[in-house]
Write a structure and sequence with these properties.
alpha/beta; 330 residues; 6-stranded parallel β-sheet
């Protein structure tokens, strides 16, 4: 990759073949966003992109473009979310994080598109799961905790590293009592488990998901149904773990049998437990810190991969209620 500064206010990034069209995006929207966010002006030259601006700004823009070039050279087109992430990375002076754009895929979704970590924090989460048998991942809404955990579970099943997947959530009543809701017990808890099905639907597609459920190679159940079981040769995912009480968390963690792996996800700032009730997630993070074979990953607002507004909403709430921000963990 060729990048050079030819004058104090001009930086040039070398191009190969027809890279420009992929880098620029539809109606040049990628380049226009880089210009607006980094305060530069970008124009094509003979086999180069010319970036006009101060030395620091033009170099930052060049780093973003170089990251997008790597995506193109992988054989795919950058998407706007990747452009925004690369811009944020250089703005916080973490240019090395741009490399996550070409991270190794975790698995493929049902359309054949790769599912890969989209932020540096997500990449650290994936690596932790590859190293350790039990991983806690905590972070705010929109950081992809649940979706990436499900993708890793499906990837392990497809690779025959495990023979089944068990996905669970605690059922915490908020407002309506389950007893007053229509239907049998599974119909009553279905809305609580729906986000897990939504992720599986996207990763596997409806037909394969249905076949896995019929063969019991994928099980989605309320946490209370885990009691008394020992689950061997499985990939377990405990989602929304901030809503467990300590006894539930200990019960869930001790379900792991031979050949099993487990991911626990949650957001300690969004507990639905009664006021004054300690979260099993917070207790487990404290009690198990430093335990061999267990890792803890913390995602932040920098890892939010939903709509840009989600990141700004999370940041605004953290500024308004700093006492609700979870304590750092190792």
């Amino acid at each position: 990759m060729t990048t050079k500064t030819t004058s104090p206010d001009l930086c040039q990034v070398g191009l190969r073949g027809d890279e420009l069209q992929e880098l620029a995006g539809p109606q040049d929207e990628h380049l226009r966003l880089i210009e607006a966010e980094l305060g530069v002006r970008i124009s094509p030259g003979d086999g180069v992109l010319c970036i006009h601006g101060t030395v620091d700004r033009s170099r930052a823009a060049a780093l973003v473009i170089e990251g997008l070039q790597e995506v193109v050279r992988q054989g795919r087109s950058p998407v706007m979310a990747e452009v925004r992430y690369a811009i944020r990375a250089v703005q916080r002076q973490a240019a090395a994080d741009v490399g996550v754009l070409v991270a190794e895929p975790v698995t493929l979704n049902h359309r054949g598109s790769p599912i890969r970590p989209r932020t540096a924090g997500q990449a650290r989460f994936v690596e932790a799961v590859r190293r350790s048998e039990l991983v806690f991942c905590v972070g705010p809404a929109g950081t992809g905790k649940t979706y990436l955990a499900m993708a890793m579970a499906v990837g392990a099943l497809r690779a025959k590293q495990v023979s089944r997947i068990v996905l669970t959530r605690p059922i915490v009543e908020a407002g309506e009592r389950l007893g007053y809701l229509p239907g049998d017990i599974m119909e009553k808890v279905e809305p609580y488990l729906r986000p897990l099905y939504d992720a599986l639907h996207d990763i596997l597609g409806p037909d394969k998901l249905q076949r896995h459920r019929q063969r019991a190679t994928i099980e989605v159940i309320p946490l209370a149904y885990m009691r008394g079981r020992t689950i061997n040769d499985a990939f377990l995912v405990l989602d929304e773990a901030q809503n467990t009480i300590p006894a539930q968390m200990k019960m869930a963690l001790t379900r792991m049998g031979l050949g099993s792996r487990m991911i626990v996800t949650g957001d300690p700032t969004q507990s639905d437990l009664p006021e004054g009730q300690e979260s099993g997630l917070q207790q487990a993070l404290r009690v198990l810190a430093g335990t061999r074979g267990i890792e803890q990953c913390r995602l932040t607002e920098a890892d939010i991969v939903r709509h840009d507004l989600v990141q700004r909403i999370v940041k605004a709430y953290e500024l308004a209620f700093p006492e609700a921000k979870p304590e750092a963990s190792s």
